[in-house]
Amino acid sequence: KPGIAFQILGPVADANIDIDVIIQNVSHDGKTDFSFTVHRNDYVRTMELLQSTVGPATNASRVMGDPKICKV
Fold this sequence. Notes:
The protein is 38% helix and 15% strand. By secondary structure, the protein is α+β, with helices and mostly antiparallel strands. Helix 1 packs antiparallel against helix 2 (43-58).
């Protein structure tokens, strides 16, 4: 859906949270996985923002996070 990346990443950027790696997978059954990384110190705040604001606004079926991911 055009504009969905902005609906997800815009509020995160507005909260002054730096976004690093962005991955958008191929859509299946009209749904697409959209993943990105933030600094470990911003994880909790990002998840709260996604669950309270972004998820409902985008009609996301699920918001998931993993605080143990590293980038190499």
